[in-house]
Amino acid sequence: MKKQIELNNVKVDYTLRLSKRARRMRLAIYRGGAFVVTAPQGINQNFIENFIIKKSQWVLDKLEYFKKFSELTLPKSGKKEFLKHKNKALDLAEDRIKYFNNHYKFKVNKISIKNQKTRWGSCSSKGNLNFNFKIALLPEHISDYIIVHELCHLGQFNHSQKFWNLVAKTVPDYLEIKKEFKRNGYYLQ
Questions:
Q1: Hey, which residues does 132 pair with through a beta bridge?
Q2: Domain residues for 55?
Q3: What digits encode the pLDDT tens for the residues 115-126?
């Protein structure tokens, strides 16, 4: 839910996410200025606000820091945007899976494009690969990383070292790409 708080005479918008799994408060600021507060369910709103106020200088510093960077603007996950980019994303996913799977030789069952709000991709135990339509809007090396990541789950259905070794066979700089991914704020909304 959208909220607003005043920190050092500056009004700051944030998104509050209450989570059953959260054991403590978490503050996250993403490129583009998205400020997300994750808190355990049932926690008092006053406690949340006091926590944010205690961290106000950190919050304001991070918001200012992220203003320095230009941002890749990804569209919201609306039906109109999904329909506009779905076919391009499917063509991209099919083409790149064919290319990378020449190396891996995994059995791919079905490739689907979804309008997910929290995932870039997923792999099912049945060999189905699902991708967010926004992969078509990312720089090529980032979308390749996402596609290879999910493709490699067909060989290792986990994130073990064996899995990362598979990824490294076709994306040897995957660690740098993961850092860039986070640094550039490629987050879904």
A1: 114
A2: 2-66
A3: 988 889 999 999
